[in-house]
């Protein structure tokens, strides 16, 4: 179970890192033209960059606290925050009729929920 939680955290951290880098450093106009990025044309560039920074922090928060042994409770807390972020993403994509993207967000939400459940529960870092 511990290995599965580490793998899930690593995969979700990679997704968060990629999304965070993209939203933080790619211009909003270019994002808006890309598949699945149309929503960025409806919001400010600052909002997109803020989401990008939050995703970068999530990538760090899913891995570093446990690896460094400093406040490892931040791993499941980060996973819960990711669940909330994915709910917002699903609502946004659903309103735009982008149901395949909502389904992908649901997969990410399920992975984050698994991490939160596992790290708050049976495989907690608190011993």
Largest sheet: none
The mean pLDDT is 95
Q: How many domain regions? A: 1
* Proportion of residues in β-strands: under 5%
Could you name the ranges where pLDDT drops below 50 across 5 or more consecutive residues? none
What is the string of helix and strand elements? HHHHH
Calculate the terminal CA-CA distance, rounded to whole Å.
16 Å
The gyration radius over C-alpha positions equals 15 Å
- Overall SS class: mainly alpha
> How many E strands?
0
Helix content estimate: over 70%
Outline of the structure:
InterPro entries: DoxX. It holds the Pfam family DoxX_2. By secondary structure, the chain is an all-alpha fold.
Write a structural description.
The protein is an all-alpha fold. The protein has one domain. 77% of the residues lie in helices and 0% in strands. It contains five helices and no strands. The protein has helices at residues 2-25, 28-33, 45-68, 74-95, 99-120. α1 crosses α5, α3 packs antiparallel against α4 and α4 (74-95) runs antiparallel to α5. The longest helix is centred in the first third of the chain and has 24 residues, at 2-25. It is found in: Membrane.
List its salient traits.
single chain, 127 residues, mainly alpha, 5 helices, globular, transmembrane, DoxX
